[in-house]
Amino acid sequence: MDIQQAVTEYEYATAGLTSMTKRWYTYKLKYFLSWCERYNYTLEDLTPARIRRYLQFLRSEYKQANGKQLSDYTIHGYAQVVKGFLSWCSQEEGLDQYVSEKAVARIELPKVEKKLIPTFTPDEIERLFMACTKEPTPQLVVRNRAIVAVLLDTGARVSELFVDPARSEREHTGLLLENVYLAEKDAYIKVTGKGRKEREIALGAKSRLYLHRYITRYRGRSTSSYAFLSRTGEPLTARGAQQVIYRLAERAGVDDCHPHRFRHTFAVNYLRAGGDLYALSRLLGHTSVNVTEVYLRSYQSEQMRQGKRISVVSEMTRNDK
């Protein structure tokens, strides 16, 4: 059975994936396909031993070209894609005669070193908010303070708050103004996550205050439907928001500062405050609680208590700047 044909059918079967996931799969499968063509392998030739040989090939070729070892995390990603493809083949009528479920089960994914997730300290958060006050205009001061507060208080993905042109063709990105609810006793935002799934995330008192100030006083009279705008009044892009974060981090002297670290900080502090793991999984928009469990390694299990929610901004900052 020709592997290229099987890959083409697999791509049709996974057409519902988000654009980013689709690109991730397509790139890695294309690389795997080129390796198979080098040895004239057919689908029935793809034994667990040959998959191990492919992964070793990735390690050696990358090291030869770049002078350093490919990370275990990257190798794991390639192996995961190949195993997912072969697993689909083993269950697809007409292809299952070439790939057995038993053989797929014997394909071992490389182990990935488990590292503690870095989170912001209270002092680092204070310094990031102070860095906002150094912006050249009041509009940017208030907007960037709102950005930092909402990222910390919701754990939302960058693409859920800011427009990502590369992904907007197939999925909605960016927080719409109509999905911001700032009632005093029920403040929250509604975001669209992976798989076009909507979810609501509560805002703490300070993130509600900062976002309200930005929208009502400094956002201007733009007709844009998006909540966060650039200096020119256009929707603030994900790349633009990343640049804002990097600029604030440099000014504040905060190392390893990137948008996803805000998400980590939200998740870990939610659990430290006694938040429920399954509730956190829903708040983060994870499809499986297994993904969320990675945050458990960042704090001691005895600190967990059920039922309590936390506003990271309210708990970890001292003053309303």
Description:
With 321 residues, the protein is mostly helical. It has 2 domains: 3-105, DNA polymerase, domain 1, CATH 1.10.150.130; 122-316, Intergrase catalytic core (hpI Integrase, Chain A, Orthogonal Bundle). 52% of the residues lie in helices and 5% in strands. The chain has helices spanning 3-13, 19-38, 48-66, 72-91, 101-105, 122-132, 138-154, 158-161, 205-218, 238-252, 259-272, 277-284, 289-292, 312-316, and strands at 180-183, 186-192, 198-202. Strands 1-2-3 form a 3-stranded antiparallel sheet, with helices on one face. A hairpin with a 5-residue loop joins strand 2 and strand 3. Helix 1 runs antiparallel to helix 2. Mean pLDDT is 85; it is low at 300-308.
Given as residue ranges, the uncertain stretches (5+ residues, pLDDT < 50) are 300-308
Q: Total domains, how many?
A: 2
Class from secondary-structure proportions: mainly alpha
Order of helices and strands: HHHHHHHHEEEHHHHHH
Number of helices: 14
CATH topological fold name of the largest domain: hpI Integrase, Chain A
